[in-house]
Write the structure tokens for this entry.
Amino acid sequence: MTAQQEGNSTRAQLLERFPEEADITEEGELVIGGCPVSELAAQYGTPAYLVDEIGLRRQIRRFIDGLSARWPNSEVLFASKSLPCVAMYAIAQSEGLSVDVAGGGELVMALAAGVDPDRIYLHGNSKSDTEIQMALDAGIRGIVVDNFDDLDRLDRLATTRQGVLLRMIPGIETQTHASQATGGHDSKFGLPVDQLRQAIERVNASPLLRLDGIHVHVGSQILDSAPFASAVRSVAELGPFSTYDIGGGLGVPYTDGETAPSVEEYLDVIVAAARELLPASAKLMIEPGRSIVARAGITLYSVNTVKSTAKTFVAVDGGMADNLDIALTGQRYDAVIATRMTEPRTVLSDVVGRQCESGDLLVGEVKLSRPQRGDLLAMPMTGAYAYTMANNYNGALIPPIIFCAEGMSRLGAERQTYEDLLHLHRPALQGSW
Ligand SMILES: Cc1ncc(COP(=O)(O)O)c(C=O)c1O
């Protein structure tokens, strides 16, 4: 191996979990979409979510092109709960990706971004009347019915023909965190087979509801492709329909210790099962979220303090307010000092946030290169389920999302301000208490 090849492979290894369009400068600084992170930090501040727009669009195409090459009558939906922001909905629309929304807020953002209602599907195990009405008014393509109350309300509120999918409980257990498993017998989502059969009869008898097919979603962050074949098998057992939605759930490798099926392997498994079990004319739908956006995004923090007590604590200017998923699922991530990417990582550290919880641990026992106050710290693989769960715990402000491509950066969403924070409290500010 030549010295250059060796250098390249080290660089590739260093960037393995980073966005596809990430790079490292001669000085060892991380670059996202052609934008050095120190420049992004100077322009937008930290914490900030950074997205590699080109890598993201490429990953979207892998799903759409990969599925349609294998099963032409297909539709890929973006599970928008993983990154609900207007810019992302607009990117989905421009790449030909449909979207699923999990409630009124996501629906409003999708419509505001210009997503064609004919490519929007509404989920939810606890939809409100208002949300159902919003979906009907917008004329979205499909409503995924979770329960009989959904059917009662659709019968009452629909005034024109509305397509529905019925969500089944498949009884499939997956190897993932309990909070991410949705396919087991005791899942709160969907109906078991006997009740699903009753729901099928109800929709078939309804004058305005059109039964498009069956939906299933077995869970999230699934690192093995077998459960997806089982999901196809479970919907196939219900008989022939025009549409089968196999849900999302393909996992991603957050750290060196994890491996996940590639998009191609995942599609091969689903389509092989579909060829064997589903009607050849049926439409095949999938709803990936995490596997579309996770790798495209990183979170950039500044180090506020480094303290060596029983451990070395590297405390950053964010925490569980901008990445709650870690506290919910225990998912392990990586973290790096973003301006010393090529230096040896020698200092065993706990990267902690600024929220008042000992559980506000972003990454435990990770080796960093000489962490110091003022450093920029990057956490890769945070494009999914981070921004979406951002909250105001301890008065934290929701960070901005910045899309980077070919050396240019643009705001997808602004940083929340203290004025925004006070806005909802106007009634209190106006009265005397
Ligand atoms: C119904 C449904 N579809 C799709 C997804 C997306 O899952 P993932 O982001 O793991 O692909 C979810 C997430 O849990 C979901 O609940």
Observations:
- The chain has two domains: 3-44+296-422, 54-293.
- The domain at 3-44+296-422 is CATH 2.40.37.10 (Lyase, Ornithine Decarboxylase; Chain A, domain 1).
- The longest strand covers residues 297-308.
- The mean pLDDT is 95.
